[in-house]
Amino acid sequence: MKLVLASASPRRADLLRAAGFSFEILPMQIDERFKPREKPAAAVKRLAITKASAAAALRRADVVIGADTTVVVRGQALAKPADPEDARRMLRLLSGRWHEVLTGVCVCSGSRRAAKVETTRVRVARLTQAEMDWYVNSGEPDDKAGAYAVQGLASRFIQGIEGSYSNVVGLPISSLYHLLKELGCDILAF
């Protein structure tokens, strides 16, 4: 039995490695768009379950992890920016405010499945136009939910975090650990 990460995210893989997990990567290509009127928490949970279930169908003897992350500010979900101007729009929304990062995480083991949504609050400093332009031009926001990476260059703009830091990066390690235990997985074997 192996641990399988159903994600191409290098950040999720880095978090798993840092926590001492041995795993394989099996990214799943699914439609990550939210359904009309779907709440962000329901969407990230559904997407995490969809990713994990798709990979589990291919790796029935293994334990599979799926995850999906979004940023929510003033009730608006911010996915990955479509282009540099969209990244600037997102950064303007986040500037000087608290927002939430929601990650749905799902573990599939055989016919069993467990999933949850982790929420972390993050405060971004008030950003000048020059700071936003510098950050967007760095290219870092391109494939990040909410157009920022808390563990990268954007760390200089983060004034506070309430909750799981690893959740903001893209995989709540403590929640994952508890889901593995809930399913009776031999967590020390991974």
Describe the structure.
Strand 3 and strand 4 (76-78) form a beta hairpin. Helix 3 crosses helix 4. The protein has one domain: Maf protein (Alpha-Beta Complex), CATH 3.90.950.10. The longest helix is centred in the first third of the chain and has 19 residues, at 40-58. It has six helices and seven strands, in the order βαβαββαββαβαα. Strands 1, 2, 3, 4, 5, 6 and 7 form a seven-stranded mixed beta sheet that branches. It is an alpha/beta fold. It has helices spanning 10-18, 40-58, 84-94, 129-138, 165-169, 173-182; strands at 3-5, 24-25, 63-73, 76-78, 98-109, 112-124, 158-162.
CATH topology: Maf protein
What separation lies between the terminal Cα atoms?
9 Å
In terms of structural class, how would the helical and strand content be classed?
alpha/beta
Q: Note the beta-strand portion.
A: 25-35%
Shape: elongated
Helix-strand sequence: EHEHEEHEEHEHH
Query: Regarding quaternary structure, how should these chains be classified?
Result: single chain
Domains (count): 1
**Which residue ranges are poorly predicted, with pLDDT under 50 across at least 5 consecutive positions?**
none
What's the total helix number? 6
Radius of gyration: 17 Å
The main sheet comes to:
7 strands, mixed
**Which whole number gives the mean pLDDT?**
96
CATH class: Alpha Beta
Number of strands: 7
Question: Could you say what the CATH architecture is?
Answer: Alpha-Beta Complex
- The helicity comes to 25-40%
